[in-house]
Amino acid sequence: MSHALQLSVIVCTHNPRADFLSRTLAALKAQTLPADAWELLVVDNTCIPPLPLALIQQGHADARVVVEPALGLTHARMRGIAEARGDILVWVDDDNLLDSDYLAVAASLGREHPNLGVWGCGHFIPEWEQSPAPELTPYLAYLAVGQRTGDRWSNRPFDYDALPAGAGLCVRATVARRYMENVREDPRRQALGRTGAGLGACEDFDLGLTALDCGLGTGVFPRLRLTHLMPASRVEESYLLRLVEGHARSTVLLMAIRNPELQPPKLDWKSRLRTWRRRRSLSPIERTIHDAQRRGEASAWHALRPH
Predict the structure, then answer these.
(1) Which of 75, 91, 186, 284 lies most in the core, judged by the most C-beta atoms within 10 Å?
(2) Strands 116-128 and 146-147
């Protein structure tokens, strides 16, 4: 039985771990949604060596590889949007193992909720290569792990409980094309998302907010489940601090892009004193996280100064 193409599964990758990518492709091969109902598009974002087509076809017999020479997740995603043929685009990272029914559930949710422009995973199962230190537990959400207790959807800006993370994110093609136009018109959006070793963030939230621009909502559903492969390097404190700093920077950038009237907070002596007292009350790990957040925010305001 032939099915109309519904989904475009897009994997953007830059020098992936071969064992992780192979498992990502194997999980795609095991999807219950018939293969003629979805396509696999892999964006080779300056991988060295280039990704061979034969490897990618382990995930889907008719998979395609396209090369995006401009380094950065936003550039890679824009190339994926331009190449995709499906009505719904599903972003899969090169360290994600989708549950076997993920694509079928994603398509079903798209039919059940025509009012949503973006929806995504509500159950991230971590597979740790090395167990994280107990003191880092409160901050592991930065790594896109954890489980939501129920469905949540919204059409309110910055309702983070209803804004899905980029891993496993589903977006209607109309919203994705609007997002691509936004990025082309405002180059500041290219600073969101990762670039090589840079740990930027919030490009997924920008996609979600674009759905609101289109008169649609966003949602998060625990029925969408995936396993997130975590290399040992991601539970090192130094990596987490870089991630926190990058997220704080990107959050300010995104809020300023969305609200041109936004101004940096004015720090008079009273507010500085309150900040100093609060910082002194924190534990050592809380203090380092706090400082990373402040560095990220300061970096964003510095970058926005010419605008």
Answers:
(1) 91
(2) antiparallel
262 close to 254: Cβ distance less than 8 angstroms: no
Per-residue pLDDT of 16-51, as tens digits, reads 999 999 999 999 999 999 999 999 999 999 999 999
Mean pLDDT score of the chain, rounded to an integer?
A: 92
Phi, psi angle pair for 66, to nearest 5°: -125, 150
Phi/psi at 226 (5° precision)? -150, 155
